[in-house]
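Quick one, tokens below:
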């Protein structure tokens, strides 16, 4: 039978219903409120920090580190994914790119909330976009766990 292995209490994340952290857990980690023990929440937190520094005008070092973090997410995911069903459809982005977009959207939405009138339409639009991205992340990770969606393979020697 071609089903993913079940997780154990030994830290094996592969195939378990909690293979991926929830959207809420990612948002909490990005803000630095609760990182948890999942490797992806820790990487999401670091991506959030990079986006915060980029918002403040940090330069090339942050962009390079951000690229490294996206790759780290993709490498971790690649080593823990259940094998997709042969008929699984391909998603257009890696999970690293998806989490990076979530981190950017959360940092931007929070920044707008703190710096302009909360009734401004830009604040509402930023938080609405963040909610859409969380829904997309949840749908994607559910489909990957169910083996109905596959993620792009990493290129090169990864």
């Amino acid at each position: 039978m071609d089903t993913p292995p079940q997780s154990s209490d030994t830290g094996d994340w592969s195939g378990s219903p909690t293979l991926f952290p929830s959207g809420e857990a990612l948002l909490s980690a990005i803000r630095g409120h609760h990182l948890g023990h999942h490797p992806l929440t820790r990487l999401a937190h670091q991506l959030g920090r990079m986006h915060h520094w980029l918002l403040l005008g940090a330069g090339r070092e942050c962009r390079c580190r951000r690229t490294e973090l996206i790759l780290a997410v993709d490498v971790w995911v690649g080593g823990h994914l259940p094998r997709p069903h042969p008929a699984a459809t391909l998603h257009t982005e890696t999970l690293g790119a998806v989490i990076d977009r979530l981190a950017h959207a959360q940092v931007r939405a929070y920044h707008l909330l703190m710096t302009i009138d909360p009734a401004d339409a830009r604040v509402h639009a930023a938080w609405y976009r963040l909610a859409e991205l969380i829904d997309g992340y949840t749908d994607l990770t559910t489909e990957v766990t169910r083996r109905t969606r596959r993620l792009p393979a990493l290129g090169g020697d990864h």
